[in-house]
Design a protein that fits this description.
Largest sheet: 11 strands, mixed
Number of domains: 4
Helix content: 10-25%
CATH topology of the largest domain: Immunoglobulin-like
Number of helices: 3
CATH class of the largest domain: Mainly Beta
Low-confidence stretches: 1-23, 423-444, 455-464
Mean pLDDT: 81
Shape: elongated
Distance between the termini: 119 Å
Strand content: 35-45%
Number of strands: 37
CATH superfamily of the largest domain: Immunoglobulins
Radius of gyration: 37 Å
Length: about 500
């Protein structure tokens, strides 16, 4: 016997003691919940049931319980009634129906209303694959995953679209599960925010806490901002860093993204003199998780479109590797204007990459692959010819190609003095990154006329070649000696 049939039979038996059951069935009412059918545990909810103007009583039932949970008299203008739940718990989760009665009989049951209690389990993680940045008309996959091994995942989109999806979980291991929601084609207005929930099959109306909101970003074609690092893109582990997204357009909001990150960080724009706008994204007490490649975007509050992305900025965390390289200058740290100088970075520890950074410079560090020479790993950074922009204080770092954003301890500082030149120019002030020409104006000139010329030691290779040649000669001598002995033995046998 179905739960609904049980409800109807109980209704008929209970009413039979007071009034005859009418053969006529009245139209079914409508049922809904405010503020919604997904209620946080401990929150309140109101269930409304709307019938007709002749309705006298309204009854609320939950599937699996034959007796009515609540009975309300109709409210003026008598076509509806409300059922208030002050504190939502797991006991109230389930499917609900309502009926109404009049002098002509009972209505048919309403459609079912499923009440869900959320916040019982810890929240899953929602991320976008491959990135929360999606081109207009492109596709993206939203990944909802948890370590609790849920059986189902529910994804909802807030905003003007207000859509939802439910997917069976894909087990990843004994306690890990996830669901992949393909989305697209995307438009600037179809961006969320999105949230997801997880729940078990045996309790489909008892959900986890919602995931953190995820908002997709569909870049437009408006002028891109610039992303700068203060005091610089190389920061020691445990120190603070501020990423500044700047534009010469009066944008109201800015967004920061990190490659491989779970989402976007949104900040309101700050209006500056001369029509500039900016947002600061502080990174407090940086660690290895902060290292990576960042981009920023800008937009207006009255539009769903975003600008094109800024040029990428690599944030490098020093002090994450135990090695410390050394930095030296050849022929020396004092160099005349127009001459050549080579800064050599070397380490006894194996390093795949060496980076050269100038204090106060606007350019990112210069990378160079290392070479092995006489038990040392080293790389040479040659400045040819030296200009006034090359003067200043330098440090170098080592890194591994498997994680190029984590660096060694810095070398001791080396001050390069350029004689016969004016004072070293100060770092340039911000200018909009509106074109390649604009970008060239941002460069301080430190990297101009600078090349990476990794040294190579041919001594060992030459010794190896000579050793191989010697072995070949010894082998030939042995063969000739064996042939001479064989020929002599044959001659002696013939004489005998």
């Amino acid at each position: 016997m179905t739960p609904m049939l049980t409800v109807l039979l109980c209704l008929g038996m209970s009413l039979g003691l007071r009034t005859p059951v009418q053969a006529e069935t009245l139209p079914k009412p409508t049922i809904w919940a405010e503020p919604g059918s997904v209620i946080t545990r401990g929150g309140s909810v109101t269930i409304w049931c709307r019938g007709t103007l002749e309705a006298e009583e309204y009854h609320l039932y939950r599937e699996g319980i034959p007796a009515p949970l609540n009975i309300q008299n109709s409210q003026e203008p008598r076509d509806k009634a409300k059922f208030f739940m002050r504190s939502m718990t797991e006991d109230y989760a389930g499917r609900y129906h309502c009926f109404y009665s009049s002098s002509r009989g009972w209505s048919a049951p309403s459609e079912s209303l499923e009440l869900v209690v959320a916040g019982v389990y810890s929240k899953p993680i929602l991320s976008a694959l491959p990135s929360p940045m999606v081109t207009s008309g492109g596709n993206v996959t939203l990944q909802c995953g948890s370590q609790l091994g849920f059986g189902w995942f529910f994804l909802s989109e807030e905003g003007e679209h207000r859509s939802s999806w439910t997917l069976d979980a894909q087990p990843q291991s004994r306690r890990l599960s996830q669901a992949l929601f393909p989305m697209g084609p995307m438009s600037p207005s179809h961006r969320g925010p999105f949230r997801c929930y997880g729940y078990y099959r045996i309790k489909p109306q008892v959900w986890s806490e919602p995931s953190d909101p995820l908002e997709l970003l569909v870049p437009g074609v408006s002028r891109k901002p610039s992303l700068l690092a203060q005091p610089g893109p190389v920061v020691a582990s445990g120190q603070n860093l501020t990423l500044q997204c700047c534009s010469d357009v009066s944008y109201d909001r800015f967004a920061l993204s990190k490659e491989g990150g779970h989402g976007l960080t949104m900040h309101p724009g700050r209006q500056l003199p001369a029509g500039l706008s900016q947002a600061d994204f502080p990174l407090v007490r940086v660690s290895n998780k902060h290292g990576g490649r960042y981009r920023c975007y800008s937009g207006h509050n009255d539009s769903s479109e975003w600008s094109a992305s800024s040029k990428p900025l690599d944030v490098l965390i020093s002090g994450e590797l135990p090695a410390t390289p050394s930095l030296s200058a050849e022929p020396g740290p004092n160099v005349s204007l127009g001459k050549n100088v080579t800064l050599r970075c070397q380490s006894w520890s194996q390093m795949d990459i060496f980076l050269l950074s100038k204090e106060g410079g606007a350019d990112p560090p210069l990378h160079c692959r290392s070479q092995h020479q006489a038990h040392l790993y080293l790389a040479d950074f040659t400045m040819s010819p030296v200009t006034s922009a090359h003067g200043g204080t330098y440090r170098c770092y080592g890194s591994y190609s498997t994680n190029p954003y984590l660096l060694s301890q810095p070398s001791a500082p080396l001050e390069l003095l350029v004689s016969g030149a004016p004072d070293t120019i100060s770092p340039p002030q911000y200018k909009p990154d509106s074109s390649e020409q604009g970008d060239s104006q941002l460069r301080s000139g430190t990297h101009r006329h600078m090349t990476c010329s990794a040294s190579h030691d041919y001594t060992v290779e030459n010794l190896i070649r000579m050793g191989i040649a010697g072995l070949v000669l010894v082998g030939l001598g042995v063969l000739l000696l064996q042939a001479w002995h064989s020929q002599r033995s044959d001659q002696e046998a013939a004489t005998s």
